[in-house]
Amino acid sequence: MSRHATLAGRLLVAAIAIGCSGEDAPGPMSPSPAAEAGSERSRILGPFLEAHWTLPIPAQGQPPAGFSKLDASLAPEDCGACHPQQLADWRTSLHADAFSPGFAGQLIEGANARPHALRACQKCHNPLEEQQPFGPGPDHLARPEHDAALRAAGLVCAGCHVRSHRRYGPPRRADLPPPTEALPHGGFEPRPEFEESRFCAPCHQFFDRKGVNGKPIQNTYAEWKASPHAARGETCQSCHMPDRRHLWRGIHDPEMVRNAVHVSWSGAELDEERLRAQLRLESRGVGHAFPTYVTPRVHLDVWQEDAAGGEIAGTRERATIGRKIDFSRGEEQMDTRVPPGGSFQLDYARPRRRGAATLVGRVTVDPDFHYRGVFQGYLPGRKDERARTLIAEALRRSQTSAYTLVELRRPLPEPLPAEAGQPGGAPPGG
Ligand code: HEC
Ligand code: HEC
Ligand code: HEC
Ligand code: HEC
Ligand code: HEC
Predict the structure, then answer these.
(1) What pLDDT, on the 0 to 100 scale, is given for residue 415?
(2) Would you say 190 and 172 are in contact if contact means Cβ atoms under 8 Å apart?
(3) How many other CB atoms are there within 10 angstroms of residue 192's CB atom?
(4) Would you say residue 93 has pLDDT above 70?
(5) Ligand 3 geometric centre to CA of 155 (Å)
(6) What residues does ligand 2 touch, defined as CB less than 6 Å away?
């Protein structure tokens, strides 16, 4: 067996560990009734959502008589003909990008070897049966008739709202006048579950038997459930779909994160000789661990800067927030994530260097830290041209998504004169 084949095998295992949490075999499309009955998943979801979130979502079948072509269409653009606001919002969201280059690129070569695993991947990223290129059953026959454009559209409107051509949505807004004529697509069935956090759980919580170090790889629903936000009645939708907007901003959006965490110097002793300071991050408006997944990293850095704005070498300290798992051993190596209402602090204590004029504290968010490593490892072994192009694009995206969340600058009193010959010395008259 070639090195590449072994590597690819390992990566697929790692991807499944993250993406499918061991549901690789037997997955929900071939449920073992004994194991499923009374499972944590069905207890939390309740009967309506348990059926609603059968993944992949069974084919819609023949449209009812009287449906126009538009009514029968599953394409988001067609929903948008009458729901333009939701379409415009959704297009900018990561749900619309769920068939991303990093996702699609990994499926291409895997498809030849393990169609079953592909269906397991796709159940969250493009969940409609109409989006699956391979059928169910032991053979997983390729389906020439599947809709490639619909597949590429990711988590589409119909994935959340349409079952057997029937529309389901939250209860109608109370401030809307009652409809005066028959509604398109046969109206809709209002369901309170659309306003509840458990609606999101099937894809954002792994209902693991064991997890790692007692916690599922993806534990967002449980983290939320135990939080003060849940106690106050703030749902996933309150924060990620305010006023029912379909934006789903998360860790990739600097404003979303800035509005939810507070960064400050919590203490400082800055004298001529020594610098002691604490850079503190408080989670005030995050409804689960910050960040909730194992994939991002958040760095706190503090360093000394000279009067010309240059970093003084050897003065930097870094502390990192995140959850690190060694997937090959199934071991958790670090979990410094900040619980809702909690805080994280970097304690800085160093001699003050000559020429130091400012103490700088910076928080950097790297949303795709883990995936960058996956793509870097996966790219070299790709033979398929399309897979290579897609993974190269995914790698590029993961290399450019990091951003500075906050930078705090603290001028130091009375800068000492610079050592002779040292660049970037003290400001004149300092
Ligand atoms: C021909 C126009 C038209 C098309 C096409 C259309 N809808 Fe609708 N839809 C409506 C109208 C009108 C309503 C009723 C709004 C109201 O309650 O006043 C509605 C209601 C809904 C509701 C319920 C809203 C609520 O208050 O809970 C959902 C959900 C919905 N549509 C989803 C979809 C999806 C998904 C698609 C595409 C697969 C789609 N619609 C296509 C016109 C359309
Ligand atoms: C239970 C639902 C679920 C399954 C199954 C799943 N994913 Fe994901 N996936 C997610 C969610 C939610 C995110 C976004 C959060 C994150 O970064 O982990 C995501 C993110 C990703 C990303 C990073 C974002 C992007 O699109 O580039 C990749 C790559 C990915 N998944 C690949 C896979 C692969 C490969 C499989 C199958 C082995 C898989 N996923 C199965 C839910 C799932
Ligand atoms: C990830 C699941 C998901 C996807 C994808 C999704 N929606 Fe929704 N949609 C919801 C939820 C949940 C609500 C209710 C939010 C709430 O009550 O706070 C909702 C509400 C609505 C409503 C009622 C809005 C209102 O103001 O009363 C309409 C109409 C609708 N969606 C249409 C669409 C259309 C059209 C698309 C695609 C362009 C779409 N949805 C994609 C989950 C989704
Ligand atoms: C059918 C599966 C599914 C459902 C249901 C679902 N999501 Fe997602 N969600 C995903 C996937 C897959 C991604 C990652 C897409 C990507 O980047 O490839 C994602 C991404 C996100 C992100 C962006 C994360 C980031 O990295 O910034 C947020 C926020 C989010 N979802 C919130 C929600 C909320 C809130 C709900 C419930 C109203 C919900 N989702 C329901 C599958 C789902
Ligand atoms: C009180 C507001 C609030 C609630 C409630 C909330 N979130 Fe978040 N969520 C945030 C903020 C702020 C971020 C950005 C910071 C972060 O990534 O943790 C975020 C980030 C995310 C992300 C990005 C991935 C990551 O690693 O952080 C996902 C996915 C997500 N939320 C899903 C959910 C789901 C699902 C629920 C409900 C079970 C939920 N959120 C409840 C505020 C909230």
Answers:
(1) 52
(2) yes
(3) 10
(4) yes
(5) 12
(6) 15-16, 19-20, 100, 102-103, 106, 120-121, 123-125, 203-204, 293, 295, 371, 394
